[in-house]
What does this fold into?
Amino acid sequence: MAKTPGQKHNAPHATVQQADSTNNQQPATKKWLPHAIAIGIFLLITAAYFSPMIFGGKELSQYDILQYKGMSKEISDFRTKTGEEALWTNAAFCGMPAYQISVYYLAHKLEYLNKLFTGFFPHPVRYIFLCLFGFYFLLQVLKIDPWLSIAGALAFGLSSYFYIALVAGHNSKMGAIGYMAPVLAGIILTYRGKILLGGAVTALFLTMEIFSNHPQISYYLGFIILFYAVSELFNSLSREKWDPSIGGKEKKLMDYFKRSAVIGLAGMIALGANITNLWTTADYSKYTIRGGTELTINADGTKNEHNITSGLDKDYATAYSYGIDETMTLMIPNFKGGATSSIGENKDALKDVESDKRDAVARMDAYFGEQTFTAGPVYAGAIICFLFVLGLFIVKGALKWWLLVATVFSFMLAWGKNFMWFTDLMFDYFPAYNKFRAVSMALVIAGLTIPLLSVLAINEFIRKKNFLTEKISLPFKQSFSGQKILIASFLLTGGIAFLCWLAPGMLNDFSPAGERNQIFYQIKQSQPEVTDPQINGYLDNVLPSVEVARKSIVKADSFRSFMFILVAAFALWLYAKNKLVNRKILIVSIIVLTAMDLISINRRYLSGENFVNKSEMKNPMSAVGRPNAADLEIMKDTSPNYRVWNTFSRPDQDGLTSYFHKSLSGYHGAKLRRYQELVDFHINRRNPAVINMLNTKYIIVPGDKNQPMAYPNTEALGNAWFVNEYKIVANPDSEITAMKNFNPATTAILDKKFESEVNGYKPQKDSLDKIELLPNSYKPNYLAYTAMTKNEGLAVFSEIYYPSGWNAYIDGKPASHFRVNYVLRAMKMPKGMHTVEFKFEPSIIATGEKISAASLVLLFLFCGGAAFMEFRSRKKILNH
It folds into this structure.
């Protein structure tokens, strides 16, 4: 009997329904046993890898978390003491909103769900379990065999990028990555007809995704969803045909829009649940380095060619761009030498180097790729890359094309400055893309799509009874036998790996552009007595041996990848030939080989050496030998609000000083734009006027034997003062350059845009005028002063001006304040004695929390209703 068009298109869904029906007739124990075993495996792997934490009482040493602990100390202390949220901290960068440091909104209650989904493991290792479980859940939604789904989960959850991220302390990133697969699972469920259940799953996991608070990862997830939705649209359009059996068209396009609407509703609920954090972040970003600049000049006086009015500087955003050929690290981990570290850390790399040159070569950098710095390569797995290529040939339908497009798109984003026409296009025209830096992070898209297509490939391979002899059609009406396709897939992966081992110079350049000049100037700077010919002679002698060492590193990993691919391909061939390997053995082989491959690479970057005693992470200062004598000396000063400048570190790379002091420095990826510009123009150049106006009461400088010493700065201007005059300048360029030569004790620099605040006002400072911070009044979000003036005066406050939240009051009544000296606050002061208060009262918090509460209620009603309807539906099936 011939099939009608309607029957043809519905056949795959009928197969799934039959499988569900058969499944439901199985005993409950047999049905759930594979899932229980899978979860058990994920628990075991996570516990075993992180056993020093779970069983040994240690902590994972994470650089960014040490910095975070310093940055968040004042905020968390205030929360502990008062039970309130400060929303602002004065401990870093002279003051900044706490929105992206540590604030507990209503949505923080979702942490209970987060613990459930992450297996109740300690922070941050729980996110590895989440990655494993989440990807397994996605594969189950796609109806993949549970045992094969375990292999897929390991391929995703053991990706090297995740372990490198954990060592760095990128915990929020890992949380967001972990929820990517479950979100995608909910969307696929919705488009495949489980509208209510799929919508609820999407809403739940998308809420958790946004709750993880890493907008860049969520943004990349948006691209994955977009590509999938477009593929479903084309799929629906192709099925919108006349069906004689129903006397009309299949309503596939209408179904698509209905399902898309449900996903849209789920997205609105997820956004609403997290709206307070999203809203404050969006508001704050306008004033940060991610919001552009008003300056048209650089700190060295040259013209700012970029003319950025919104978003990041492109050079800054693309500093961490993956090289185009560096993409090979997905299959050969050390294709570019591995992490930024000395060659000497890899003893095998020196075996072919002449003995008299080994010491010099050992000090050179093993990494020779395009990035400024890397903690390690993004490695997807040699076997997984082989299966991905195989999947491009044998997997059919929209899923393959969606995954391929998303993967290539991921590469193009990650290439950044090495693929600039595309980067310019994204930065200039794609909404919010210019807010994000480290474009190489886009490889998280490929980190999901590559293992997903790999699992679909092995699933399709197993499904075909006579794979080697079966004709497989390819685009452009070409078809080849399965045996030829298997060989082609092996040659495109294993063959290339073998070629990289046999002749590494054919596909790689071991001397990156500019490296010689960079080393030359480093030697010149550190040893000025050495002549240029001597340096050049040294480099001519050493650099060829550096290439030899780097070739050894690449060859070792190339051969390693070749062997893994060879064994995997041989296992597939044996299975297809029905020799020695059956279905179970094949899947177990893939599981074991994948785990061996990925774990051995991960241990290069996260091993027992990365775990430390809990005390070292509890107090970040102890991890670096602090508090030192300088800190202890400064802490004898019990004044509530003064600042410290630690000259031992860069002002934008020091969050640790904030643990004990209110610091000029800090560590944050979204610092206030104007403060960063103040750092570039003045603090880095040690302008004493600027240092003094920031109430820098102590400076940590080198003392005896270069040990930190506290130097009291007697010129610091204090918390507030009255000035004799103000100077109006034309624009931000004039404002920041006017501060090169001015006396902040007597003069305030005022941008013309605030001219209406003074309106010809003339300060009349008297020698007896006084303004002081009230004793015991200091809070991070509240400052109170007593002011006494003989005449009207102009007061300058050594506090960062931030227009979105700080309100000023004189004697309890609202008063206007404005910006002076590029970053500080000022206000006109009436004569007499007055109390001046500054309160941080961002209005968006209260509104956001109301929306969040309503959305959370709606989320749980939606999920509860969907669970009830699914339970009732399954009960009916069982009864029939």
Observations:
- The radius of gyration is 31 Å.
- Confidence is low (pLDDT under 50) at residues 1-24.
- Residues 296 and 304 are 5 Å apart (CA to CA).
